[in-house]
Amino acid sequence: MTTDNENTLEEISPVDTAQEETETSPEEAVAGLRDQLLRQIAENENMRKRFEREREEATKYAVTKFARDLLDVCDSLEKAVDAYGANAELSDAGKAFVEGVKLTQNNLLSVFERHKIQKVSPKGAPFDHNFHQALFEVETTEHAPGTVMEVLQSGYVIQDRLLRPAMVGVAKKMTG
Questions:
Q1: d(CA 106, CA 49)
Q2: What is the model's pTM?
């Protein structure tokens, strides 16, 4: 059994009212579809540009992990040259060996350079937390506070990104 109230509600449903209000002319429908199409085209163009940027970035920094692994090799070559390079007591074979290590080091550095990997050795420069990692401070009056006094390990950047920070000792103002 239904009441008069229920019949009235069924006759005027919200769906019927919405359909009557949304009926549009063909020109308005075309304009709406044109707007949707233009928005979709713009969205597709933005997506294409984003994918292109991501592809360029992936290409630019693809060697990052491999380069980080090679930094240890470069450090070892540098330590070998530093330890034995200036040793006048080496035999001719020892001197030839050190010369071979220097050549290998230079070859590796030229490969780094071709791939836009640059060494950061900031001795005497102001400390920059973006490229340096301070391991200790030294009280001194010879250098301005915040100046890199000693480089324990060189840092490297690839393109414009930090690959490894330089490990440094920084000047500190004398106290007392």
A1: 39
A2: 0.64
